[in-house]
Amino acid sequence: MARPVHFEIPADDVQRACDFYSRVFGWVFEDWSEFYGRPYVGIITGAEGEPGINGAIAARRTPGGPGIILTITCSTIAALRPHILVSGGTAEGETYALPGMGWQARFADTEGNQFILHEDDPAAA
Q1: Residue 68 half-sphere exposure toward CB, CA atoms < 13 A
Q2: What residues are paired with 104 via a beta bridge?
Q3: Cα gap 110→85, rounded to integer Å
Q4: H or E element at residue 16
Q5: How far apart are CA 74 and CA 3, in angstroms?
Q6: What gap in Å lies between CA 21 and CA 106, rounded to an integer?
Q7: Range scoring the smallest mean pLDDT among 29-33, 67-71, 101-105
Q8: Which DSSP string corresponds to 59-125?
């Protein structure tokens, strides 16, 4: 079964968004920009073992673009892609590597909400 494992908050000003979420919720941040090639800051929302998931704040790709994006883990992206498309969803690009972590692909649901599928693969390059 596929489960949510990560969320992404798009921001026009990444530092401003980090400051907001730090002040409001006490979240802690780590710079992950080197993995993404653009401003991308990991969010630690709580202690390991507590309920909840961690996420990131990312530089918005387009002005007025999508809101919060959920990442869902799955066994194989290729197996889910046809189900997404036949159910009215759309692929928002090709599958890409997250070096040393796995493979990801971005999709949109029938309402235009974007989500990312993640397939674990430490050998991804």
Answers
A1: 8
A2: 96, 118
A3: 10
A4: helix 14-25
A5: 7
A6: 25
A7: 67-71
A8: E-SSTT----EEEEE-S-HHHHHHHHHHTT-EE-S--EEETTTEEEEEEE-TTS-EEEEEEE-TT--
Write the DSSP symbol of residue 50.
Answer: S
- Check: CB of residue 58 under 8 Å from CB of residue 11: yes
**Predicted pLDDT at 30:** 95
- For residue 121, which amino acid is it? D
Residues 6+ apart with CB under 8 A from 16: none
Please give the structure tokens belonging to residue 35: 């993995």
pTM confidence score: 0.75
Structure-block tokens of residue 12: 């026009």
Residue whose tokens read 């599958």: 95
| Amino acid at position 12, single letter | D
Task: Look at the chain and count its residues.
Answer: 125
